[in-house]
Structure formats: structure tokens, C-alpha cells
Design a protein that fits this description.
This protein is an all-beta fold. It contains two helices and 32 strands. 2% of the residues lie in helices and 34% in strands. The longest helix has 4 residues.
């Protein structure tokens, strides 16, 4: 069993207030109206089925990618699922040079830095939200923007794309630092949360007219905790009460050290939120691992302090199981290399927990967890990277049947090389609808920064290197040079 540590900080309450903002704000401070019941009946089966064929699609992005000769403009690629699995020939590539997408491809836009998907307009096709955190607007540098790409029978395109801008233009605020979809207003519809460096905005009320509006009440961030830097958003029903809540991942300065830190935002809707702070990390994923009706939260903390010493840090994955009080109530399970049955050794700068993903690999109904360690040394190759798979069960995660892979694993294409960062991004994904998730792992440092993704299938209830394959930016018809492909894999 893993060992426990880290006690949560005291909870704090936030006032349920939201200043009226510019743009499509609703009159009277109401939450956005829900779509009609007839629309809800047509909602997509999967949050990532963009062409409505019943197969889950995979979204990968290269925010450092070159578009039309412009470096670090960024692009997003969608590989469509099918009975035969993923195929790079069945794809759509979108950038700010795509017709209908707001803005133009400019140096440093980082289009694709963040991703989230849901069927917002409930037409039977999932939609994709893409963050461009480096976008300059109105002459203000790095204010950021988000774009909603709508699904259709032909998949994603720029047709009718929605331009989502921050209410205020603030230099370096990186609008769309985090994106999450969920029923934030408790009205049965999918809404969107967009995180900036200093606040969070909520949008809802899409309906068939595709007219999302900013909410004007229930804003969770009247202020941030002192020295807190947000890095992302995770949505889920963490208390099993039927209501979606939010977790803001990030870090916080404590004296002279930067520690993983998270905020649990309970509530939402017109009533607003209460906020609990707890020790966490920069990345996270939610899902019901033990099938008790409440979502569990897995946090990746690749630079976790150990005994107060950075020079002992190898990284950790912390799992908060769903319960009354949500994440931060009680203590998490903590998984680290070399303890609790996790293979490997706890070593300096392994960055175990650099990314995490949940999916059912063996089809037993319990979610398994993939964890990357982008800094893992393989032989003499520093930062070559590796990926671990922990098994889900009725009792939670277990190392019974644990697996781990790197580029020197027999059957995995390529070779472990210094700086590859294999496992920087991970995704458990069921592309062929057989009820079993394979693994997609990114290595953005591969081939001097071109970057590639590895696909490992599942067979006999386990991940296997047999039949694994790779693809890069050029494989999907995009510019692969210095793309660091894929820097982001949508969950």
C-alpha cells in the first residue's frame, strides 16, 4: 500500500459575488439559461466524439509548432477513432490560419496550449475549446484567448468557431491557462470554465443558437491566495452529491520554496463557491476509480518536496478519493517510485507525475492510472522519460499488475535518449470502442525537439509494446520541425 502524508490547510470561504463584465454578460446577474430538453436528448455520447460516429477521437496539440513559417504559433490535430483504432490519415489540423478561427498565426501565440471538450450546443457532436495563452490582444502582450471549434458529421473545422476573449485585457494574464467543461450551473447543461492567472470566468447557456454568455454571479475568484500561481483546471463530482465542482491546480510560494498547491471550489451556480486550499500539484485528472459514485482526484506533483528538501525530490502522484468535504479532507494516497510496489527508484529530478491520465485498460469497469516521469534517466540518458500504469479496483489504485514502459522497453519503437522527455504527456484512450484503453505517450524532446507520440495498444487486459507505433507533426500533415509534438494531449 502507498504511504500517506500531507495534511490539508484550513478551508476558507469566498463571497458569492461576480462583478458584471463586458461582452455577452447576462442582465440581472443570472446564470446562463439551460438549453431546451429537446436539445439535451441529442447530446453526444462521448465528450470527445467530434464527428458523432460513436468512437472517441484523440486531440493532440503542438503550441510550439510552426504555422505558415511562423514559429511557436501553434496548431491542434484531431485523430478520429474507428473500429480499426487511430489512423493519422483520418485527421483534422486546425490553427489560427484555418478559415473561421479568430486571430492570425503569430509568434508565441501558443495555440493549443490548453484543451477541453464537451457537446456544449447539444447537437450530438462534441465541441473542442482551444486555449492560446500567448495571444496578444489590443496591443496587450500575452493576454490570451480561447476558441471553440464546433463538431459536425465531418468532424471539427473552423466553421462558425466561437471567439472567447477575457473581460479585461491584462498583460501576461494568459487567459485559458486552464479549461474545463462541466455542469457548473447545476442545470443539466455543459458549461465552460476558463482560468486566467488572476481569475476564473464561467460561460454557459449555449443552446442550439451557440450564444454562450459569461455568468455574472457565482464567480469563485474574488481574489487568489497570496503567492498562488494557477496552472490548470479539473472538473468532477468529488463528493458524489450530483453536482460538478472544480479544482484549480497550481503552486504556491512557502518561504523560499515553490510547493504544489490546489484549490477545491465547492458549489457553483448562482450561490457561488466555497474554497478549500490543500497541498497538491500542477496537473490533475478526475474519475471514479473505485466506482463508489464519487469522482476521485489524481494529482501529479513532479517537484514535490521530500522532508523539506528539494534535492531529494523525485515526484509523486497523490490520489484523493471522493468523499464528503472533497479533495483536501483527510489525507491522500501517495504513490512514488520505489515504494508501495511501484517499480523503479526515487531519484532526483525524475519528475514522476509529470502527467496523469485515467482509463480502463482491462475492461473491468475500474479506471486505471497512467503516470509519466519525463525526467527519468534510462541508463546514462538523463531526462529520457518513462510511463507507469497502476491498476484500478474496488479498493482504489493498486500495484497488482503494475506496468512501466520506456523507449528501451522491448518492442517500443526508438531508443531512450537524453532529453526525449517520454511521458511528458500521457493519455489512456479507447479509440476502437472495445471498452479497453490503450496508451498514448508524448515525448516532445524527441529528435531534437520535433517531438513524437507513441501509441501502445491493449491486449489480454494489459498494455503491450507489441504493435506499438509512433506519429509526429509531419505524420498528420503539419510542420514537425521544432514542434515539440505533442506538448498537450486532451483528456
Amino acid at each position: 500500500m502507498p504511504r500517506n502524508r500531507r495534511t490539508p490547510t484550513a478551508a476558507t470561504a469566498l463571497a458569492a459575488s461576480l462583478a458584471v463584465v463586458a461582452g455577452a454578460a447576462l442582465a440581472g446577474g443570472a446564470a446562463p439559461a439551460a438549453a431546451a430538453p429537446a436539445e439535451a436528448a441529442a447530446a453526444a455520447k462521448h465528450h470527445d466524439d467530434f464527428d458523432g460516429d460513436g468512437y472517441r477521437d484523440l486531440v493532440v496539440s503542438a503550441p510550439s509548432g510552426t504555422v505558415n513559417g511562423v514559429k511557436r504559433a501553434g496548431y491542434v490535430a484531431v485523430l478520429y477513432g474507428s473500429a480499426g483504432g487511430l489512423d493519422t490519415a483520418r485527421r483534422t489540423v486546425v490553427s489560427q490560419s484555418t478559415a473561421g478561427v479568430a486571430g492570425t498565426s503569430e509568434t508565441g501565440d501558443a495555440f493549443g496550449a490548453t484543451l477541453a471538450s464537451a457537446d456544449f450546443d447539444r447537437d450530438g457532436y462534441a465541441d473542442l475549446v482551444v486555449g492560446a495563452t500567448g495571444e496578444d490582444l489590443g496591443g496587450v502582450a500575452d493576454t490570451g484567448r480561447a476558441v471553440v471549434l464546433y463538431g459536425s458529421a465531418g468532424g471539427l473545422s473552423g466553421s462558425g468557431a466561437e471567439d472567447m476573449r477575457p473581460a479585461s485585457l491584462i498583460e501576461g494574464n494568459a487567459y485559458a491557462t486552464g479549461l474545463a467543461a462541466g455542469d457548473w450551473f447545476h442545470d443539466g447543461s455543459q458549461a465552460l470554465a476558463i482560468l486566467s492567472k488572476d481569475h476564473l470566468e464561467l460561460y454557459g447557456g449555449w443552446g442550439a443558437a451557440r450564444t454562450p454568455a459569461r455568468a455574472t454571479t457565482g464567480h469563485p475568484f474574488a481574489d487568489f491566495p497570496a503567492d498562488f500561481t494557477p496552472t490548470g483546471l479539473v472538473g468532477g463530482d468529488f463528493e458524489g452529491d450530483g453536482n460538478d465542482d472544480l479544482v484549480v491546480t497550481g503552486s504556491k510560494w512557502s518561504l523560499e520554496t515553490l510547493e504544489g498547491h490546489c484549490l477545491y471550489l465547492k458549489g457553483g451556480g448562482p450561490e457561488g463557491y466555497t474554497r478549500t486550499e490543500f497541498a497538491g500539484g500542477p496537473v490533475g485528472v478526475a474519475g471514479d476509480i473505485d466506482k463508489d459514485g464519487a469522482d476521485d482526484l489524481a494529482i501529479g506533483d513532479p517537484t514535490v518536496l521530500e522532508h523539506g528538501q528539494w534535492d531529494l525530490s523525485g515526484g509523486a502522484v497523490e490520489v484523493w478519493y471522493g468523499a464528503a468535504g472533497g479533495p483536501g479532507a483527510g489525507e491522500p494516497e501517495v504513490w512514488q517510485q520505489g515504494s508501495g510496489g511501484v517499480p523503479g527508484a526515487y531519484e532526483l529530478e525524475d519528475r514522476f507525475g509529470s502527467d496523469v491520465s485515467l482509463g480502463d485498460v482491462n475492461g473491468d469497469g475500474h479506471l486505471d492510472l497512467a503516470a509519466g516521469a519525463e525526467g527519468e534517466a534510462i541508463g546514462e540518458a538523463d531526462d529520457a522519460g518513462a510511463v507507469w500504469l497502476l491498476r484500478g479496483s474496488a479498493g482504489g489504485l493498486t500495484t497488482s499488475g503494475v506496468q512501466h514502459f520506456n523507449q528501451d522497453t522491448a518492442g517500443v519503437p526508438g531508443a531512450a535518449e537524453a532529453g526525449d522527455l517520454f511521458g511528458s504527456d500521457v493519455r489512456l484512450h479507447d479509440a476502437d470502442r472495445d471498452g479497453r484503453s490503450g496508451l498514448v505517450a508524448g515525448a516532445p524532446g524527441e529528435n531534437a525537439g520535433q517531438g513524437f507520440a507513441w501509441v501502445l495498444p491493449t491486449r489480454g487486459g494489459v498494455l503491450t509494446a507489441d504493435g506499438s507505433w509512433t506519429f509526429g507533426g509531419a505524420s498528420v500533415g503539419a510542420n514537425g520541425a521544432n514542434a515539440r509534438f505533442p506538448e498537450t494531449l486532451a483528456e
